[in-house]
Design brief:
heterodimer; A: mainly alpha; MetI-like fold; flat; B: alpha/beta; six-stranded mixed beta sheet; 21 helices; 20 strands
Chain lengths: 311, 575
């Protein structure tokens, strides 16, 4: 097992080299000269040359590639072109509000979805099961924008329960800011989550070992919670864990609409202002996130499923 | 006479399906006296498993309905019990062993824990006591090193061991009634014999009553006191086991008794149920020549032409290890095997699961690459042929797999499945001509040509295996490997498929390699038999010599494992 983890961590090296190469090709080779965009229409050739020198774009392509590789391994991404701030600093600052929103929203939506799925699996084929399924489809069919507008208008503006937008650091102050986007997040994820979890659980319910459990005289609820759920956890773990890196990236839409100064907003700003170093940093961080959480979900497999052994 | 432990009275079970109501069990009545074993025999779909599930109260509701009947257990009508009362009985007073040991255990829990579970809920034992009892039970069912094995997960055990765990689980609360639903069907004959002996021993020790369900009358010859024969949802015959074997009266029972290949003398084609009765269930008169014993060796070889020769073949699989998962060693699945087959003959390969017989078959077809040795087909060394040459070769060499359920693409019609090999090899002319070939062949294997637009799931197991056979024959091959091709089938269907294979061999001059774990089947179909053990052929001889005087101890073990429950009637007396 240790050997397996070491091997997987070593595999990160070629993957990161590849990711760096793709980022390098996209930003430094095919995207052309960014100085024209940064300086606007009226820039002189002199100004552009100075800026190129300043941004290190005069270096050889190979050393530019090496810079990206270096940043992928050291997490030192240099300075933003737009805000002149140190990027690692910006990421730290943005991560806090993003995680304040995404972690509670993600945990609650996953737990609630799992509970609902177990409940409807118990009443499979009955009216309540059908009702929940219809609700899931209906919930998924409505656009996220509709929820945002309606919830902001009704709960924040009409009822005044929450802040309409903005963010304040520190517990419990941030709660009134993140509550509404978090609820929208939960409403948006419950539909697909319940549908997936329910299918996985029902796949297991018709397996032979469940019949064996019934023949032992176990109650239906013990069978569901003990025997079935344990087996259903195997696909559920992958589904859940692989979503985690996207939490770090923040929720682009929600952060934007609720003016939360998180990573999602930061990425959007970087896109708008052609802030290449920030975009590169986010691209690298998300690929590292996917590699690490991919590994974590593989390791969790061996915990959930004794049939899987890594050597 | 004392009251029976279980008494099933006029039981009717119906299923609501898309096509209306289907009656799966029709007016079935039988008794199981205390401490006795009764065998319920019938083919797939005859209603025997549904009957057992009704006793357990495990019918899938609301699809299944019981409009009529009683199931009296110790005088208590189980059909009137509510769910919580049934839970009290299940696993405690009545318990059940299922057919598929591979899937009937929960893959994520230790086997000890799974045995202990029933003890905790029914006998209110503590975690520790239940575990100790589980280990004790595992010892009793003959699992080696029970204290350690209790910590194993199901996938770490063999099929036979898993079935022993199932048995330990079923007897854990000392039930009064044990229902065994095809407990040995998925197992090799050698393991089957051990499991049967174990069940019989435990039944005596615990003074249990047992309801033993099987499609193979031969299996219960040694252990059942009474036999109930079910056919198409009805009980057609019910009697003392001895009497059933000596003087069966219903033509279906006679058919079941006759269709299992005997180790010694067999007729030219096996008798099947349809020889004994018509579609409508009327008794038929069997023509005398159908039961005449046929001596394969009396027929002179038509040719001395050797179609296939295998020389010192080795096929190995890498064992991975080390930090980067490199190959550290090799496992030799086929280890130095040599043999020859003459054109038009059948070589039987027999051995237990894991002996390398399937790998050998696949190596010959080059579906797995042999490591060394030579495969000479029709005078040409094909061990290393590639690309177009290999493709041409595949036309002549075909394979029929074990599981007719999973080896047909569920989303293709039968016509498409049959025509596909022709398309791949660009044979058979126009679309209409190809379809005509498929139609002719589907009739040859005993199906109707108007069924060709149906999908595989609309056919029974035996019919599907016929489709697999037809598919293998579409390219007019010379050489066919049958890899456990009848093992998944009921004995009555098995006989039909074996007969079909022989008919086709005669008509098309086919050469077969017939792989099976059942020596009686191989003995019937093959001219020569090779016994495989741990990757090697340890004994090879004419089929009749093998069963008359096997030289190897291992071969004798295989022979003794074949169920003895044969009819005492001679073939001639069946007429």
């Amino acid at each position: 097992m240790t050997k397996y983890i070491i091997r997987r961590l070593l595999y990160m090296i070629p993957v990161l080299l590849g990711v760096s190469l793709i980022i390098f090709v996209l930003f430094n080779v095919v995207s052309g000269d960014p100085t024209a965009v940064l300086l606007g229409k009226n820039a002189t050739a002199r100004q552009m040359a100075d800026l190129r020198e300043q941004l290190g774009l005069n270096k050889s392509l190979f050393s530019q590639y090496l810079d990206i590789v270096k940043s992928a391994f050291t997490f030192d991404f240099g300075y933003s072109w737009a805000t002149k701030q140190e990027i690692s600093q910006m990421i730290w600052q943005g991560a806090y509000p993003s995680l304040c929103l995404s972690i509670p929203a993600f945990v609650i939506s996953t737990v609630v979805s799992l509970l609902i799925s177990v409940f409807v699996a118990y009443y499979r084929g009955k009216g309540i099961d059908l009702f929940v399924r219809v609700c899931c489809i209906a919930g998924m069919s409505i656009s996220a924008l509709a929820y945002i507008l309606f919830f902001q208008w009704f709960f924040a503006y009409k009822l005044g329960w929450f802040e309409i937008s903005g963010f304040e650091e520190g517990f419990p102050n941030f709660i009134s800011y993140i509550a509404l986007p978090a609820i929208i997040w939960i409403v948006l994820s419950i539909g697909p989550d319940v549908r997936f979890f329910r299918t996985v659980i029902l796949d297991e319910i018709y397996q032979d070992y469940v019949r064996t459990a019934r023949s032992k005289g176990l109650s239906e609820i013990t069978i569901l919670l003990h025997h079935v759920l344990r087996n259903a956890m195997i696909p559920i773990i992958t589904y859940v864990v692989i979503q985690i890196p996207s939490l770090i990236l923040g929720a682009l839409l929600l952060e934007n609409f609720f003016s939360i100064p998180g990573l999602g907003g930061m990425t959007l700003n970087a896109l708008n202002s052609s802030d290449f170093p920030v975009m590169k940093a986010m691209a690298i961080i998300s690929s590292v996130g996917y590699i690490i959480f991919g590994l974590i979900s593989d390791i969790l497999y061996t915990v959930a499923d004794p049939r899987i052994k890594f050597k | 006479m004392t009251t029976p432990l279980l008494s099933v009275r006029d039981l009717v079970v119906e299923f609501q399906t898309g096509d209306g109501i289907v009656r799966a069990v029709n007016n079935v009545s039988f008794d199981i006296p205390l401490g006795k074993t009764i065998g319920i025999v019938g083919e797939s779909g005859s209603g025997k498993s549904v009957t057992s599930l009704a006793v357990m109260g495990l019918l899938q509701k609301p699809a299944a309905v019981v409009p009529q009947g009683q199931i009296l257990f110790n005088g208590l009508d189980l059909l009137t019990c509510n769910e919580s009362k049934m839970r009290e009985l299940r696993g405690n007073q009545i318990s059940m062993i299922f057919q598929e040991p591979m899937t009937s255990l929960n893959p994520v829990f230790k086997v000890g824990e799974q045995i202990a579970e029933a003890l905790r809920i029914h006998k209110k034992l503590s975690q520790k006591e239940a575990w100790e009892k589980a280990v004790h039970l595992m010892n009793q069912v003959g699992i080696p090193n029970p204290a350690l094995s209790a910590h194993k997960f199901p996938h770490e055990m063999s099929g036979g061991q898993k079935q022993r765990v199932m048995i330990a689980m079923a007897i854990s609360c000392e039930p009064k009634l044990l229902i065994a639903d095809e407990p040995t069907t998925a197992l090799d004959v050698t393991i089957q014999k051990q499991v049967l002996e174990l069940l019989h021993k435990l039944q005596q020790e615990y003074r249990m009553s047992m309801m033993f369900i099987t499609h193979d009358l031969g299996v219960i010859g040694d252990i059942a006191d009474d036999v109930v024969v079910m056919y198409r949802s009805n009980v057609v015959e019910q009697n003392n086991a001895q009497k059933i074997f000596e003087s069966a009266t219903h033509p279906y029972t006679k058919g079941l008794l006759a269709c299992r290949p005997k180790l010694g003398a067999n007729p030219r084609r096996l008798l099947t149920v349809s020889d004994f009765m018509t579609e409508e269930g009327k008794e038929k008169v069997i023509p005398v020549d159908r039961v005449q014993v046929f001596d394969k060796e009396s027929v002179a070889d038509k040719t001395d032409h050797v179609l296939l020769e295998v020389k010192n073949l080795v096929t190995q699989f890498p064992i991975k290890g080390g930090l980067f998962g490199g190959t550290v060693d090799h496992f030799k699945a086929v280890n130095d095997v040599s043999f020859k087959i003459k054109k038009g003959k059948t070589l039987g390969l027999v051995g237990e699961s894991g002996c390398g017989k399937t790998t050998l078959g696949r190596s010959i077809l080059r579906l797995v690459e042999p490591a060394s040795g030579n495969i000479i087909y029709d005078g040409k060394d094909i061990t290393h042929v590639k690309h177009e040459e290999l493709r041409q070769l595949r036309k002549k060499m075909q394979i029929i797999f074990q599981d007719p359920y999973s080896s047909l693409n569920p989303r293709m019609t039968i016509a498409d499945i049959l025509v596909e090999p022709l398309i791949i090899h660009n044979e058979g002319g126009t679309k209409a001509q190809r379809f005509e070939m498929a139609r002719a062949l589907i009739e040859k294997v005993g199906l109707k040509s108007n069924q060709m637009n149906r999908y595989p799931h609309e056919f029974s197991g035996g019919q599907r295996q016929r489709i697999c056979i037809a598919r293998a024959l579409m390219l007019r091959p010379e050489f066919v490997i049958c890899d456990e091709s009848v093992s998944a089938l009921d004995v009555s269907i098995q006989a039909q498929v074996l007969n079909l294979l022989l008919d086709l061999q005669e008509e098309f001059g086919l050469t077969y390699v017939f792989i099976s774990h059942d020596l009686s089947v191989v003995n019937f179909i093959a001219d020569e038999v090779g016994v495989m053990y741990a990757g090697k052929i340890i004994e090879m001889d004419k089929a009749s010599n093998i069963y008359k005087g096997a030289k190897e101890e291992y071969t004798r073990t295989l022979l003794s494992a074949i169920p003895r429950g044969e009819t005492k009637q001679s073939l001639a007396s069946l007429v």
